[in-house]
Design a protein that fits this description.
single chain, about 450 residues, mainly alpha, Serine Threonine Protein Phosphatase 5, Tetratricopeptide repeat, 2 domains, 24 helices, about 70% helix, about 0% strand, disordered N terminus, TPR repeat, repeat, Tetratricopeptide repeat protein, TPR-like_helical_dom_sf, Ycf3
C-alpha cells in the first residue's frame, strides 16, 4: 500500500542516572540544576547547566547523557549524538544511552546506525517494548520488513495495549502483501483508538486489495468523516467506487483527491478512466496526459546555494549577528583603530575600504580573532563564502569558544550543501551559549 510509517520515537526527558558522590559539589549543583530545568522543559538552560557540570567533572557519563537529551529536545540531534558517544565511552553498559542515540540517529535518517544502537540497547535491556518498536521502524525505513514484523510482534507481546505498534505492524503486513493479517491489526487499532482516522483508512485500503469494495468504502467513509483532508482516502474510495462501476461517485472523489494533491498522477489516471466510461473522451485524454507528464520530467535548474538554506535565508540569518566591537586599549601598532575604522566604513556601505582596514588590523595583530570574524562577515555579504569560511576558521583557531563564529560558519556551510558540517557548527554555537542557533537547528537540521 502507499502509506508510510512515520517514526514514533520517545525522547526521555530526564535520566534516572545520578552523578557520583565523589564529584565536586559545584558539579553536583549544576547537574541537579540541569535535571530540574529539563523537567520544566527549559532545555536551553539545561544544556548550559550540564555543560558547566562537564567542565568541572569531565569524566561523568550522566552529564553527557543528560546534555544529549537536552540537545535532542532542542532538535539538535547531531550534537546529541556526540554527547551520547561520550556517555557510552564512559559507561558502555547504559541501555538508555544506546536507545537515545538510536533515536537521534533515526531522526537524521541514519537508520542502519540506529539499528545497531537499538540492538545493543536490547542486549542490555531485553524487556523494553519501546526499543523493539523503534528498531522495527528503522527496519521499515530500509525495507527490512520481515525483521520489522518480528520487532513489532515482540513489542506487542511486551505491551499488548499499544495501538501505535499494532498500526505499525498492520502497515508492515501491507508491505508484505498480507492484507488479511493487516485487516486484523487495523481492527485492533480501531478498538484501542476508535477516533484514529488512519486505522479506518488503512483497513479500507487493505480491503480494496482483497476486492472487498463495499466494506472498503464503509471504512474509507469513516476515515474521511474523521479527517476530511485525507487525499489518499478519497483516492482509494474513488478506486473502490470505480471497481463497483459507480463512475459518477468515483469521479467526484478523484476530483477531491486532485484538489488536495495536485500532482497525484494516479488520481488523474483514475479520473480519466471514469470520464472515458461516462463518454467524456476529451476530458479523459486531458487527464491521461496529466497522468503521463506529472513527475515524469527532470528539469532541475542549476543552484549555486545547493542546501535547503537559500542565499536569501543565509543573508537574513547572518545579518542579525553583531560583531564583538568592544572598545579595547589601543596598542602601539594601532590595530584596534584600523579594526574600528573598518567597522564604521562597512556600516556606511564602504565594504571594500572596510576590508582594507581589517586586512591592516590583522597584519598588525595576527591573533585578532574579532577582525577575522568581521572580515568573514563582510566577505559573506559580498558572496565570497569560501573566503568567509577561511576567516571563520582562523577566528575559531584563535578563540575556540567564539560562539557567533560557529553560528555563521554553520549557516554558510549549510547554504553550500554541507548540511552535516553546518549543523554540527550550529550545535557547537548553541552549546557555547548562542541560543539563536537552536531555532535554526529546529528548522534546517531535522
Amino acid at each position: 500500500m502507499k502509506r508510510h510509517i512515520l517514526p514514533l520515537v520517545t525522547l526521555l526527558l530526564s535520566a534516572s542516572l545520578t552523578i557520583p558522590a565523589t564529584a565536586q559539589q559545584t558539579a553536583v549543583d549544576h547537574f541537579e540544576s540541569g535535571i530540574t530545568k529539563s523537567k520544566s522543559n527549559d532545555f536551553t538552560g539545561a544544556q548550559q547547566a550540564f555543560s558547566m557540570a562537564i567542565s568541572m567533572n569531565p569524566e561523568n557519563s550522566a552529564s553527557y547523557y543528560n546534555r544529549g537529551l537536552a540537545k535532542a529536545n532542542l532538535k539538535d540531534h547531531r550534537g546529541a549524538v556526540l554527547d551520547y558517544d561520550k556517555a557510552i565511552d564512559l559507561n558502555g553498559k547504559d541501555a538508555l544511552a544506546y536507545l537515545s542515540r538510536g533515536v537521534s540517529k533515526s531522526r537524521q535518517d541514519d537508520h542502519r546506525g540506529a539499528l545497531l544502537d537499538y540492538s545493543r540497547s536490547i542486549e542490555l535491556n531485553p524487556d523494553d517494548a519501546q526499543t523493539y518498536y523503534n528498531r522495527g521502524v528503522s527496519r521499515t525505513n530500509i525495507d527490512q520488513y520481515r525483521g520489522a514484523l518480528a520487532d513489532f510482534s515482540k513489542s506487542i507481546e511486551l505491551e499488548p495495549t499499544n495501538g501505535q505498534t499494532y498500526y505499525a505492524r498492520a502497515v508492515t503486513k501491507q508491505k508484505l502483501e498480507d492484507y488479511a493479517g493487516s485487516v486484523t491489526d487495523f481492527t485492533k487499532v480501531v478498538e484501542i483508538t476508535p477516533k484514529r482516522p488512519q486505522a479506518y483508512g488503512g483497513r479500507g485500503m487493505s480491503k480494496v486489495e482483497l476486492n472487498d469494495f463495499a466494506s472498503a468504502i464503509i471504512d474509507l467513509n469513516k476515515d474521511i468523516e474523521l479527517s476530511p483532508e485525507d487525499g489518499e482516502a478519497y483516492f482509494y474510495r474513488a478506486y473502490a467506487k470505480g471497481k463497483s462501476e459507480d463512475y459518477k461517485g468515483a469521479l467526484a472523489d478523484y476530483d477531491r483527491a486532485i484538489a488536495l494533491k495536485s500532482d497525484n498522477y494516479r488520481a488523474y489516471y483514475g479520473r480519466g478512466f471514469c470520464r472515458s466510461k461516462l463518454g467524456d473522451q476529451k476530458g479523459a485524454v486531458q487527464d491521461f496526459n496529466q497522468s503521463i507528464e506529472i513527475n515524469n520530467v527532470n528539469a532541475d535548474a542549476k543552484v549555486v546555494y545547493n542546501g535547503r538554506m537559500t542565499h536569501a535565508i543565509l543573508d537574513n540569518l547572518r545579518n542579525t549577528v553583531q560583531e564583538r566591537s568592544k572598545i579595547n586599549e589601543l596598542g602601539s601598532e594601532r590595530a584596534e583603530a584600523y579594526f574600528s575604522r573598518g567597522i564604521s566604513k562597512n556600516k556606511q556601505g564602504e565594504s571594500k575600504a572596510a576590508i582594507a582596514d581589517l586586512n591592516k588590523a590583522i597584519e598588525l595583530s595576527p591573533a585578532y580573532a574579532e577582525a577575522y570574524f568581521s572580515r568573514g562577515l563582510i566577505k559573506s555579504v559580498q558572496g565570497d563564502q569560501k573566503g568567509s569560511i577561511m576567516d571563520c576558521n582562523s577566528a575559531i583557531k584563535l578563540n575556540p569558544r567564539y560562539a557567533e563564529v560557529y553560528y555563521v560558519r554553520g549557516l554558510i556551510k549549510h547554504s553550500l550543501g554541507d548540511e552535516n558540517g553546518g549543523c554540527l557548527d550550529l550545535s557547537k554555537a548553541g552549546e557555547l551559549g548562542y541560543n539563536p542557533a537552536y531555532k535554526v537547528i529546529s528548522q534546517y537540521c531535522n
